[in-house]
Amino acid sequence: MFDLSLISSTLTALTPILFAALAGALCQRAGVFNISLEGTLLVGCFAAVAGSWYTGSAWLGVLTAVLASAAYSLILAVGSVTFGGDAIVIGVAANLLAVGLTSFLIRTVFGTEGAFSDPALAGLDPVLGQSLLVYLSWLAVAAFAVLLYRHPWGLRLRGVGERPLAARTLGVSVTKYRYWAIIAGGALCGLGGAQLALGSVTLFAENMTAGRGWIAVVAVMLGRATPIGVLLAALLFGLAEALGFRLQGIGLPQQATDAAPYLVTLVALFLSSRRNRVSVQG
Predict the structure, then answer these.
(1) Does residue 53 fall inside a structural domain?
(2) Whole-model pTM above 0.90?
(3) Is residue 23 one of the residues assigned to a domain?
(4) Does residue 4 fall inside a structural domain?
(5) Domain of 127?
(6) For the CA atoms of the chain, what is the radius of gyration?
């Protein structure tokens, strides 16, 4: 059960979750709790397939996904930052809207329902067994760490998230930093959606994110919005998903193995809650 192919499967499963978790961590650092990752990821999946289908280029599909997801994230930015709405409520609404919107678009754009795939649809070519987006996700972790702890922009971003009034007093635009954090997070979700729709498989299916955005939210909480913490948490969930597929091969029911990542998520939430409670009591 444990061999080199499991590592490859884990990396493939890890990448969409990692991109979405980095997006959530970026927003968290700016003081915005982003739970719209699931919907933004799903929009990225659809846009990646649509872009690849109409241009014939997988990388233009990736670019389409990045732009579409970044634009979709404006729902959260405008609602929570400009109008001061509850980010949780707006995030839930954005997730529900994405499900309905992509279900509508698959019928109007591709003239089908359920799932769309075509032999002519261009997917991402593997390099050393993985798409380039897998390697890009690792670079994104390193870039996030450098940006957050070694760059003045990251220092101001953390100030905006932790002490917004103090940051405003020092002349830092809280609105601008939160807008850019949410939009950049949307772009990261677009990369995650592109990996899911053009890297892991080459198709779009309704609700194909299957809770990965919610798992990414848990990864942000478990990793305390730090680059390494988020990476390790996402790695845990990616391994659980890969093991779930592997368990199907030894005869366990698919329904049971599909539940593996969510079981790990529940355990992680329990441990995180317990850790926070002990920290507060201490």
Answers:
(1) yes
(2) yes
(3) yes
(4) no
(5) 11-213
(6) 19
Q: What is the pLDDT of residues 73-104, one digit of tens each?
A: 999 999 999 999 999 999 999 999 999 999 99
- Domain assignment of residue 174, yes or no: yes
| CA-to-CA dists, residue 96 to 35, 40, 46, 72, 103, angstroms | 12, 10, 15, 13, 11
> Within 10 Å of residue 126's Cβ, how many Cβ atoms?
13
How many domains does one find in the chain? 1
Q: In this predicted model, which residue has the larger pLDDT, 251 or 107?
A: 107
